[in-house]
Amino acid sequence: MQFIRFSDLCANGLAKGKRVFIRADLNVPQDDAGHITEDTRIRASIPAIQMALDAGAAVMVTSHLGRPTEGAFKPADSLAPVAARLGQLMNRSVRLVSNWIEGEFSVAPGEVVLLENCRLNKGEKKNDPELAKTLGELCDIFVHDAFGTAHRAEGTTYGIAETAPMACAGPLLAAEMDAIGKALANPKRPLIAIVAGSKVSTKLTILKSLANNVDGLIVGGGIANTFMLAAGLKIGKSLAEPDLLDEAKAVIAAMQARGAAVPIPTDVVTAKEFSPTAKATVKKATEVADDDLILDIGPETAKLLAEQLMQAGTIVWNGPVGVFEFEAFENGTKVIAQAIADSSAFSIAGGGETLAAIAKYGIEKDVGYISTGGGAFLEVLEGKTLPAFEVLARRAKG
């Protein structure tokens, strides 16, 4: 994946005295009073901003926040709390600029300003060509550093990348592009993917795409139940999608045609009700009763999958394999997580529940790369080329 790196521009003195426009992801959660409750995204955006300041650039930063109505400002949509928090973290003043689209504001080299919620601008969501042209005229260098928006072709994520004099990837986005390239474009084999979740339908295109590329495809959660049905096993009253059995069989067949496999659980952990206090019973996969709920893979299956992961060259992880929030049904996910941590493979993980599992088992430092963008990460797994990747690669060619 060829693209211009902002770090290279700065290292070569090409950002000095230039107007740098950074599209960050500062969409942080707030309470009813407007106080920021979690600031990871703000902290993550600082390296790109500091890099630009250290290079002597005049720095403009913008982001979306929530789902505002274009052209209709409400105080709840304001980035004011973000500007205050960013200023605290960077130990400097960060001025918030409203109604900035026509460029009627000044920013000096060595200064950073935060431009008000970009989704308030008319035409942002639909990437209006006139807006894109106006955005491009605001800067000398556009820096895309918001992977969470990389799958959206909007004004400040795509249009400006086409019209700015130069467009490049910030350190956050560059790291995602490098990790994705390493895991999917040119992986060290065997490549094992773990795709889990409640529904096959939401991950079907991902499963089909991966089936053509991976050496092993581990399914978990409700998805595994549907594959168990496809393999002729009974799953009691477990969550599944019987109308997608043909699709599950097609994925199994695609893997088999390449000498690969979708391991079907040999044992499972069942309960009679979905509850954190439900009694857990380990059963062979062939002995599930009509009133059973499968809530995790069994210890035998977990051990076999862990052994497979220990032999991998690359691991892609999206989704826990059981109801890991309930202690009695967390063993499968815990064993998988530990195997990924212990494996010498390059691992990339993404998705909200996956990140929660990584945090629960404290393996953050043992995962090769933790992806920050939920929807963008899933679209990459589907085999799609993200708009941000496409436009930055095109601009890199001049």
Could you please describe the fold and organization of this structure?
By secondary structure, this protein is of the alpha/beta class. The protein has 14 helices and 14 strands. The chain has helices at 6-11, 40-54, 80-90, 129-136, 155-163, 171-185, 204-211, 221-230, 245-257, 299-310, 331-342, 352-360, 374-381, 387-396; strands spanning 19-23, 58-62, 95-97, 112-115, 141-144, 167-169, 191-197, 216-220, 267-271, 281-284, 293-297, 314-318, 346-349, 369-370. It has a 6-stranded parallel beta sheet, with helices on both faces. It has a 5-stranded parallel beta sheet with strand order 8-7-12-13-14, sandwiched between helices. Strands 10-9-11 form a 3-stranded antiparallel beta sheet. Strand 12 (314-318), helix 11 (331-342) and strand 13 (346-349) form a beta-alpha-beta unit. Helix 7 (204-211) packs parallel to helix 9. It is elongated, with a radius of gyration of 23 Å.
Output the keywords.
elongated, 37% helix, 6-stranded parallel beta sheet, 5-stranded parallel beta sheet, single chain, alpha/beta, 14 helices
Strand order in space, largest sheet = 3-4-2-1-5-6
Count all strands and give the number: 14
Distance between the termini: 15 Å
Query: Strand count, sense and closure of the main sheet?
Result: 6 strands, parallel
Shape: elongated
Q: Which structural class best describes the helix and strand composition? A: alpha/beta
Number of helices: 14
Rg value: 23 Å
Percentage of β-strand residues: 15-25%
In which range does the helix fraction lie?
A: 25-40%
Which H/E pattern describes the elements?
HEHEHEEHEHEHEHEHHEEEHEHEHEHH
* Low-confidence runs: none
Oligomer: single chain
Average pLDDT, all residues:
96
